Predict the 3D structure of the following.
Amino acid sequence: MEKLIETYLEYRKTLGLSQATLKLDRTCLQKFNQYLAARKLTVDRVTNNEIKDYWSSLQPLSRAFVHKLLLILKAFYRYCYQHRYLLLDPFRNLEIPRYQVQLPKMIPTTAQLRQILEAINLDTWIGKRDRAILELVYSAGLRLSETAGLKLDDLDLANRLVKVTGKGAKTRIVPFGKTAAFYLKLYLKDRPDRLNPILFQSGKTKGRMDRSTLERIFDRYAKQAGLKFRFHSLRHACALHLLQNKAGIRHIQELLGHSCLRTTQIYTQLLPLDLKQAHHRYHPREKEVAKLKTEKNPATSIQSPAFGKAARHG
C-alpha cells in the first residue's frame, strides 16, 4: 500500500497540484492504510463491502471530511485499476452521495465592509498595503492562497486585470475595479522595495505573506470596526454583492474560479427575497397584472389561476 501511495502521489504532482492538496491526499490514504492494517487486510483484497464498513467507521467525523476522504480514496483506486496495479476497483459500483455544500455564514454587508476598510490607517506603507489587499480581494473575489501567491508581474494596472493561480495550479485572468486600482497604485508608490517581485510584501522580511498573516490582518481591522468576520468572507461578499446587483451566475463562476457551477449557485440560496422581487418584476404574467392594475380593469378582481392570490404568492 505504501508503494502505491507514493506512486499515486508522484502522478498527482505531475498535474501541478498544490502542496496542501497533496498533503491532504497523503493524510487520507495513510488513514485508510492504518484501517486496513488494523484489520489485517491488503489493498488488493478490498471489496465493496469493506469500503462500506470503512465508511461506517468514519461517521463520528464531519460529513465534509468524510465526503472528501472517500473521493480521494475513490480516485486512488481508479488510478491503480486503470494502470493495472490492482485487478479490482471496489468503488466501481459504489455511489458516493453528493455532499450538500453549506451556505456561507457571516457575510459582511457593504456598510460593514466600509467600516472595516475605513479602520485602516493610510499614513504608513503597511496601512496602504493592507487597504490594497482587502480592496483587491473584495473586488476580484480572491482566495487566501491566491492572494498570498501574487507577484508584481501578475498585475496589469492599466487594464485593471490580475492573473491568479488557483486550485490545481489553474490560472485565470480576473478584473478588478477602479477603487482597488487606486489603492494598489497608492501602495506600489510607497512600498519600500519597489523592485521586489512579490506583490504584497511582509512588513518584517519583505518576503511573501502567508495565509495566517493575511487572516490576522483582516481580523485586526474587523475588530477595530467592532465586527467579527473571517478573511474568506471578503470572497463571499464579492459573489453575493455581485449577485444582488444582477450579475450573471456564469460570470461570477468565472470570476471566482469555480470548476463546478453548483458551487457558485449556493449564493442564490441567500437571495430568496431578491428572487421573489425579480419574479414579480420580470415574469410576463406579473407584468400583465401590473398593466391591468394600472388600467384599473375590473378583471383584476377576478380570482383566477392566472391573476388570483395563488398566482401572486405561488
